[in-house]
Amino acid sequence: MTNNEIPHAPVGPAVNNDEEALASPFVKCLLRLIRTQDSFGLWEGQSDAELLGEFIITKQRQRAIPFGGDPDPDALWRLDMFYTAVALAIEERSGVSTSPIMGASGGWSFCRDVHRFGFETFRKLAEAGTKLVDDATAAIEA
C-alpha cells in the first residue's frame, strides 16, 4: 500500500501545488462534507476545484471585501464547512467523536476577519486544515 492509498496520510510540506492539495486527505474530507450538503444536485457537475473556489480568497479579493456589519452568509458557510471538516477528519483519524465548538449565527463584531475567511491557494487550505487535524490528533494521542 502506498502513501496515496492511506486515507489519513499527513499532508505536510510535500503539498506544493493545487493538484496535490486537492488530493490531500483533509481537502477530500471537506469535499465530501460539501457534496453531502447538495441535496438538489446543483454541484453535481462541478470539479473539486470549482467546488472549493469559494474558499480561495486572494489578497486582491480580500481588499475588495468591506468591513462592518454581520458577515455575509457565504463567509459563515465557509467558516462552518471548514471547521466541521476539521472535526470530521479528527474523528476519522482518531476514532474520538468530535464537533466544532462555534455558533455561526451572529455576534461576530469581535472578529473583524470573519468577513474574509478563506485561503490564498488550495495548498494553503490543505495545510491549514491538516495542521489543525494533526495538532488535535496529537493532543488526543498524548
Compile the SSE list and pairings.
Elements: H1 18-22, H2 25-36, H3 48-51, H4 59-64, H5 73-94, H6 122-141
Descriptive overview:
With 142 residues, this protein is mainly α. The chain has one domain: Protein of unknown function DUF269 (Putative cytoplasmic protein), CATH 1.10.3100.20. Helices cover 49% and strands 0% of the residues. It is built from 6 helices and no strands. The longest helix is centred in the middle third of the chain and has 22 residues, at 73-94. It is globular, with a radius of gyration of 16 Å. The model is unreliable at 1-15 (pLDDT under 50).
Quick take:
With about 140 residues, the protein is an all-alpha fold.
Order of helices and strands: HHHHHH
Total separate domains: 1
* DSSP summary, beta strand count: 0
Beta-strand residue fraction = under 5%
- End-to-end distance: 27 Å
The second-level CATH architecture is: Orthogonal Bundle
Main beta sheet: none
CATH superfamily: Protein of unknown function DUF269
Rounded Rg: 16 Å
CATH level 1 name: Mainly Alpha
Structural class: mainly alpha
* Helix segment tally: 6
Helix content: 40-55%
- The low-confidence parts are 1-15
Task: List the defining traits of the structure above.
142 residues, mainly alpha, Putative cytoplasmic protein, 6 helices, 49% helix, disordered N terminus
